[in-house]
UniProtKB/TrEMBL annotation, chain A:
A matching Pfam family: MbhE
UniProt membrane topology term: Multi-pass membrane protein
Residue stretches making up the MrpA C-terminal/MbhE domain: 122-173
The protein's name in its UniProt record: Multisubunit sodium/proton antiporter, MrpB subunit (TC 2.A.63.1)
Source species taxonomy: Archaea, Methanobacteriati, Methanobacteriota, Stenosarchaea group, Halobacteria
Keywords associated with the record: Cell membrane, Membrane, Transmembrane, Transmembrane helix, Transport
The organism's place on the tree of life at top rank: Archaea
Organism: Halogranum rubrum
Compartment(s): Cell membrane
From TrEMBL, chain B:
Compartments, record wording: Membrane
Transmembrane stretches, start-end: 6-27, 39-57, 77-101
Primary localization: membrane
Protein name: Monovalent cation/H+ antiporter subunit C
Length: 177, 122
């Protein structure tokens, strides 16, 4: 673990905690935008530039815009308290939940292990070896997304279209005036 | 727990923390907008799990061709899955926020507890 990675991880956890404890919705939205930025940096460090670009454009950009528009259309509840108050029994449940999740961690392969099922797997190596010959696309992520699994991407486009139709139906057009 | 785990599995520990924070926001905060933000935190915890599993020490992004400058690449498959998941997540957020705007125009509140009382009175 490099110092840079450690800093970004601490920043990400700090921003996530900030979104959870602030009561003011605008503060929460700003914290969540900073959180998305931290996550996008993390994707770059983990050698996933395609995911980082999508996260920066969609997570930090469009998502923040959608939340701000929602607050503009609705209300930001005024509050006398700045932070959420966490009830003791909630805290106990959260610690149990975290404990159960952490118990699974030692069973996973170490980070960066070349022999892990994902990295050393047959499917991964097939795509890395043959993607350029078969599709003539240099970026294997693009090759899988657009060529090998093109129908899945079509399905994804259908999901986005359905979501757009659903938003229009729910808002019944007068919200855009 | 072994201390070495902290240095070999650190991202997975962050995943556990993000899932916990996301679950707390989803269940416990009364404000509907904050719930949706909690859902996004939970989602990106899962994304971190996938992208970490694709990572390989010394690996470069999976861009091949031109004789291949590098021989070790990170796995492209989890990246593809997460690209799709991010876009689907945005669609989900958009629909959720549209419903929230609609709820506000009908009931005049975004507080889950007030909403429950109003619904009970009807």
């Amino acid at each position: 673990m490099t110092l840079l990675e450690a800093t970004v991880l601490v920043f990400v956890i700090g921003c996530a905690l900030a979104t959870a404890v602030f009561r003011d919705i605008l503060s929460v939205i700003v914290a969540s935008a900073a959180y998305s930025l931290g996550i996008a940096t993390l994707w770059v460090l983990l050698q996933a530039p395609d995911v980082a670009l999508t996260e920066a454009a969609v997570g930090a950009g469009i998502m923040t815009l959608l939340f701000l528009l929602t607050v503009a259309k609705t209300v930001n509840p005024t509050t006398d308290r700045f932070f959420e108050r966490i009830r003791p029994r909630t805290f106990v449940v959260l610690v149990c939940f975290l404990g159960v999740l952490l118990m699974t961690v030692p069973a996973l392969p170490a980070i960066g292990d070349a022999g892990s099922p994902v990295v050393g797997g047959e499917v991964t190596n097939y795509y890395l070896d043959n993607a350029y010959e078969q599709t003539e696309v240099e970026n294997v992520v693009t090759a899988v997304l657009a060529a090998y699994r093109g129908f899945d991407t079509l399905g994804e486009a259908a999901v986005v279209f359905t979501a757009g139709v659903a938003v229009l139906l729910v808002l019944r057009r007068e919200a855009f005036v | 727990m072994n201390v070495d785990i902290l240095f070999t599995h650190y991202n997975y520990i962050v995943v556990a923390l993000l899932l916990t924070i996301g679950a707390y926001m989803l269940v416990e905060t009364p404000n509907l907008v904050k719930k949706v933000i909690g859902m996004n935190v939970f989602q990106s915890g899962i994304f971190l799990f996938f992208i970490t599993s694709a990572y390989r020490t010394g690996g470069s992004p999976p861009i091949v061709g031109h004789g291949g400058a590098s021989t070790t690449y990170v796995s492209p498959l989890p990246h593809v899955l997460i690209l799709t998941a991010i876009v689907v997540g945005v669609s989900l957020t958009a629909v959720a926020l549209a419903l929230i705007v609609r709820i506000y125009t009908e009931y005049g509140t975004l507080d889950e507890r007030v909403l429950r009382e109003v619904r009970a009175d009807e």
